[in-house]
Specification:
Layout: H1 5-15, H2 19-26, E1 34-40, E2 56-62, E3 68-74, H3 82-97, E4 100-106, H4 110-116, E5 120-122, E6 130-132, E7 135-137, H5 148-153, H6 155-164, H7 171-182, H8 187-201, H9 205-217, H10 224-256, H11 263-271, H12 275-285
Parallel strand pairs: 3-4, 4-7
Antiparallel strand pairs: 1-2, 2-3, 5-6
Amino acid sequence: MVSSPHEAMHRIFQEYPGLFSGVSEVLGIDFPLPTSVTVLPNDLTETSPVERRVDTLLRLEAEDDEPLLLAVEAQGRKDPNKPASWAYYASYLLTKYRLQPMLLVVCQDRATAEWAAREVTFGPRQWPLLTLRPLVAGPHNMPVIIDPAEVRKDLALATLSVITHATHPDAGAILKSMTTVLRDTPQSIANPIIELVAQGLGKHPAAQLWRKLVAVDLSFYKSPLSEEIREEGREKGRAEGEARRAAEDVLDILEVRGIDVPEAIRERITDCGDPEILRHWLRRAVTAPTAEDVFTDE
C-alpha cells in the first residue's frame, strides 16, 4: 500500500469525482452540480523531452453550462516554482481541450494553504499579462467533522476533511466519527475510504491512531490495511511464541544440568522478547557453570 498524503489528497477526487461540488460549496464558490464527470489523462507532456503531469485531471459537465476542466494538485510545502507550473497547466489545458480550466490545490498545513491561495501575476509590473487564482482546500477552510451524522451526509467530503486535518488536535474525535459511520457502511464503499485515510495521514501521529481504530472498530473488514494490521498481529504473536519457547528451553537446560536459577535471573530470561538473544543464551546455558554465566559474554 502506498503511504503518501500527496497521493490521497488528489486521488480522492478520482475515487469520488463529485466531491468537487461539496468542496466548492464549502469554499463559497457557486459551481453548478455536475451531471457527469470524466477522469482524463493527467499527462501534460509536450513533444519536447520535458514531462509535466498534473496530479489529477477531471472533466466536469453540468446541465445548461459549459464543461469544465478541473486540475487537482496536492501540495505539501511552499514551492516558488509551482505558480509558473500551474499557469502552464492552465494554458496548456485551455489550448488542448478548448475548455475553461480550474485549479484546486489541496494542502495539509495552513501556511502552505495560505501561500497557495495568493494571487500571482505574470508579466511586467506596468501591464500584468496573467493572473493565477487557484482554489485552495486545507485545514484553514475545510470543516472539522466530528459528528457521525455529518459524516454520513457526505462521506467523500468527510474523508477529505480527515486528510486535510491530519495534524488537528482533535484528530482522535475526527477519526472516531469516521469508524463509527464505516461500521454500518457496505464494505465496497468503506474499503477505499479506509485506504485513502491511511494514505492521507502518512507518517503523522494520527496514522497510528487510525490503524488502531481500524483494528478494533473495523476488524471485520478485509481491506488491504486491515489485512496488513492482522498480519502484523500474527507476526507479533509468532515472535512472542518463539521467544516464550526459547526462554523455556534456556531454563530447562539449566534445570537438567542441576544449576540453581535465582528468581531475578529467571525473570530476566522469561521477560526477554528477543528470540535471537534467547538463542544466544541457550547456547551459553549448555556450558555455563552458573546461571549468571549465561550472560557473562554480553
